[in-house]
Prior knowledge:
Elements: H1 10-16, H2 27-33, H3 39-42, E1 47-55, E2 66-73, E3 78-83, H4 94-100, E4 110-111, H5 113-127, E5 132-135, H6 139-152, H7 172-189, H8 196-211
Parallel strand pairs: 1-5, 3-4
Antiparallel strand pairs: 1-2, 2-3
Amino acid sequence: MTDTKFIYSLAELMAQCDLSALPPEDMKVWELMNTVGKETQLSKGCMNVFFDTEFTTIEKDGFRTLISIGCVAQDGREFYAELSDTWHPANCSEFVVTTVLPLLQGGAYRMTEAELATRLKDWIEGLTENKVVLRTDSPFYDWPWVEQLFTFFGCWPKNLRRKCGTIYFNHDHHVSRYQQGLEDYWKLNAARRHHALADAKSLLFARNFAIGRGM
């Protein structure tokens, strides 16, 4: 589920973060977003992969489980999977039932959680021998699924960085162009919004639009 509130210029992000004012449940958000200041150095020479997840509910007290995940590498290679053994429609919010579930594709994309762990690991390791950074605009919601998946099954990809990458810009101009890129993408793909792979592709499209790459 994409969440554009996580897209800030670097200066705006740091200026808005008052740790003393954060409630305990939001400290995880800060821990994830605090990687932004180190991104330029850590990401040099890396393969960036933009990803998104869909899950049963966004409610804090709901039974939250993973439904699907979509990934697109900076060179366009894609990965998409839907889980067959982690969720049930009865545990889904009304929004998920009416908006997310109708977009599921089934068939070859449907797999168990264990299969997902293996296939996603193989896909990531097959992208490059260099370090891979998974990037999302909603790290608080998306990254824990990846972290839990590879940790539980003990198969962390050898080239995957163990910190979530964010989508950030140093200048307000790029932030504005990113938002415009998202708007342009969804004008053409509105019917697919909240499909994990389509959402992931929107991040790559908007990021490239923001920096003027391939536009």
